[in-house]
Amino acid sequence: MDNGACSYRRFLDGDESAFDEIMSELFDKLVFFINRYVKDVYAAEDIAIDVFSDLLVNRNRYNFKVSLKTYLFMMGKSRALNHIKRKKIINFVPLNEAEAKADETTIEKTVLESEKKLIINASLQKLPTDMQTVIHLIYFEELSYEEAARVMKKTKKQVDNLLYRAKKELRHILNEGGEYIL
Amino acid sequence: MRTFEERKREIYNRSRKRIEKRNNIKKAILTIVPCFLLVSVISFSFLFSPNTMNKAPSNSLNDFGSDKAAICNISVKEINSGAMYTITEQKTLESFSDFYSSLSDQYVGTQLPPNDFSPILSDTKTDEDVVEDRTEYTKVLESADDKTTPDDYIPSETLQIPIDTNGSIEQEEPINKVYSITVEYSNGRKTELTLSGNSLIDFSSDDRPHILLTPSQITELTELITQK
Fold first, then answer.
1. What pTM, to 2 d.p., does this model score?
2. Chain B residues with CB inside 8 Å of A56's CB?
3. Which residues of chain B are within 8 Å of residue A50 when distances are taken between CB atoms?
4. Could you say which of B11, B19, B22 has the minimum Cβ distance to residue A49?
């Protein structure tokens, strides 16, 4: 699995349908990941659209040194943080919260196929953002430690330590059941 | 949440807008930068042009020779009466360079075309001064490649510049008159020097009147003309 790199290569060679494949494979995952930062599924979707349009505009910026998924997640994280910064300055008018929650659940179910992951995700909200991110990237997105480290702009060792502490916290939240799930 | 198609459409729309924006910026840069450079070049050339640059006058006569700009006219205006005299026409700085080279020895004339500048003896000199000057001047003439005898050249504390008179000028002896000398260059620049004193213009020695300049006035005129 090359996480979209092969499809992107085909897209660069002129195969427009390859972009659809990339979108089908990575768009929802990206929205779900961004949502972990911005806590607003619509804003997350908007940011994901922005990331993908950036991929179209600057076609040669992605250099295939990392997987396309890692690259998109890196951009997504950076834009999500920018969005949070901006949000502190501009006061956003909240949308219909119930509708947003429903959409969030839908996308959550799309990305997290298994029941186990859904349970973990529910408990993740109680963890600090860094711990949420590392578990999200390693367990949900199945990125390697190196890739997760790139996205989070940390070293592999830091990611390892952070994951260890996050699991410990999560076990504590999940009580006995956590031991089995994790 | 948007559908897949809506998302895709939105992505393409945003991409197109961003590409358009980028192209507009490129276009603007390509328009503005050359204009800016052009304006800068014009401004700099204006600032550092000989006309506008406030350059200190050079004391070295050798510096002067490198400038080939033509002097169109040197005109003399007698301020008291308003009479105008034209001294030279279409002189080049190159020929003036020779003239000023000869001035550096405090003697005037051996290397100059006879019609332009020729030395005369000042009336204010004593006989002893003349003998002393002649001795020194003979040394100069010995090295000069000129068939004229030393007696034809008399060292002078004054420089005689022939004047082409226009209009009728009465052959009278002006006393304590003030003259304005204007040097007009071919590039349009004009410089002006005001001189005053007894017998500044000598009408008596020749049928062509001459300006008589003292060494200090020669220095002043040199500086005036060599000012760039």
1. 0.50
2. 11-12, 15
3. 14
4. B11
Q: Give long-range contacts, CB 8 A cutoff, 24+ apart: B126-133.
A: B130/B154, B130/B155
Contacts of B10 in chain A (CB under 8 A): 49, 53
Distance from CA of B12 to the nearest CA of A (A): 7
Q: Position A62: which residue type? A: Y
CA-closest candidate to residue A151, choices A71, A85, A51: A71
Shortest CA distance to B87 belongs to which of B71, B100, B98, B103? B71
Identify whether the C-beta of residue B116 lies closer than 8 Å to the C-beta of residue B99.
Answer: yes
Closest CA to A56 of A25, A13, A12, A17: A12
Q: Kindly report the backbone phi and psi dihedral angles of residue A173, in degrees, each rounded to the nearest multiple of 5, phi listed first.
A: -70, -40
What is the interface pTM, i.e. ipTM, of the complex?
A: 0.73
Fill in the DSSP letter of residue A110.
H
Residues A152, A172, A140, CA angle at the centre, nearest 5°? 40
Run means of pLDDT, 10 residues per run, chain A, 182 residues:
78 87 90 89 91 89 88 92 82 61 68 71 83 87 88 91 89 67 56
